[in-house]
What does this fold into?
Amino acid sequence: MAAQSQYAELARQLSAIGAVKRELARVLPAHCPAGSAAVLVLLDRNGEMRMSRLAELLAVDMSVTSRHVAHVADHGWIDRAPDPADRRSRILQLNPAGRALLEELSERYTQTLAAALGDWSDDEVGQLVTMLARLRSSFGDCRAKAPYHFEHEREHEHEHDTASATPATPA
It folds into this structure.
């Protein structure tokens, strides 16, 4: 197991990843913000789905998902069709225009990463990919509940809150 100081440094480095993500977001075309790109990527990777499933995969509220979906639909990058199992719901599906945009976005990301990591060896890039995949895997499904120890703390906080908010009853 790594030393506590190494975990602290890892936390600082992961926090700084936000700057990398912002730089990558700058390569997106103005008409395709990051949320819209995420919708397209998820539809490409997972196939057609209901908006509720997309909201779950995005790990955002349905109202946020609805805005992202409206944006990509208005730009003609996805199709929305009635769900045969539930006519009140819609099935979202990436269309050829959306796939073409994804190819452009992928090319832009790849070029940006190649320029930024141009002095890295193939082995170093491979190690980074492997370690990031391992890190992601160690956290599992990030849309799931908080780790046990945090849930346990919340339960005790709730018990404390409830106990302090509830008047004592006479014996």
Q: What stands out?
A: Residues 144-148, 156-171 have pLDDT under 50 and may be disordered. Strands lie at 49-50, 78-83, 86-94.
